[in-house]
Write a structure and sequence with these properties.
The structure is a homodimer.
Chain A (H helix, E strand, L loop, with lengths): L1 H9 L1 H8 L3 H23 L3 H7 E8 L6 E2 L1 H14 E16 L2 E14 L5 E14 L5 E10 L6
Parallel strand pairs in A: 1-6
Antiparallel strand pairs in A: 1-2, 3-4, 4-5, 5-6
């Protein structure tokens, strides 16, 4: 993830103008967002619902593949609990882009690759997904996941 | 789709303040975005790649399930051509929310339900997806799809 972060930082100058944010603030926001993505990766690989929930806005929406959209902290918590009961993830996120749209809104596009273990059977299989995150800065200045959708990039199982 | 649009319009006042956009501009932007979603639905059901492409920003990213992210107009066009060669869609979009994040950025979350026909076999099956769109207003004032991800909400096939 480190190399991608560095690449992303280079582009900060050009984007800062359009977002109406000072460059210093922009770089600080960007760093916080990349940190958030790293924390998300860690929480996911640890099957840690509590840690995941600290990264979401209270009214955040989680849009997991094979499930209706989960709206708000209670539903998001239940959804991650279900995921972590069913599977154990061992994945690495690659940050493809972080784009700040306003002082309070940003999005990131990532890819993740690794392995998924089906807890019931112990079967382990390769996993590869693409992710689209929308982040909102809370009143106390912390970036949180506002909306999050992902899908597999692998072909359908035959 | 109509009822959802009306509901969404009621919330415009509260959101306009945070986005730093006048209410009149906000409502106009919102209407254009909902129109865009309707045009997308129409283009999808008509398997019309050209029509889809008019709705995307030139550097837009399409993140279809079971495929890597498609970046930029050439890749987006090829991806939709592939989709429309493989399947024919008959789906209806329900707009769950439209949220303007700044004068130039907005997102929408939708659900779509209907049927998919596999062109090779003629088999027809129910289809249900969730979608996350990020829109960008172009220099000439037109809203375009900047990023778009979706995934099925149906359980995995056994």
């Amino acid at each position: 993830m480190k190399n991608t972060i560095k690449m992303a930082m280079v582009a900060a100058g050009a984007l800062a103008v359009s977002a109406g944010v000072t460059l210093a603030q922009y770089e600080s926001d960007r760093e916080q967002i990349v940190d958030l993505l790293e924390s998300y990766e860690t929480a996911l690989n640890a099957s840690d619902t509590d840690a995941v929930l600290t990264l979401y806005a209270p009214d955040g929406v989680f849009m997991p593949q094979h499930s209706p959209s989960q709206i708000g902290a209670v539903a998001v918590r239940r959804a991650y609990d279900n995921v972590f009961t069913a599977i154990t993830l061992d994945v690495e996120f690659q940050v493809e882009e972080v784009h700040q749209m306003s002082p309070e809104w940003a999005f990131a596009r990532t890819n993740s690759v690794g392995f998924v273990t089906i807890n019931a059977s112990g079967d382990r299989a390769p996993e590869a997904n693409q992710e689209l995150f929308i982040f909102n800065k809370s009143a106390d200045g912390e970036w949180k996941i506002a909306r999050y959708a992902f899908s597999t990039i692998n072909p359908p199982r035959q």
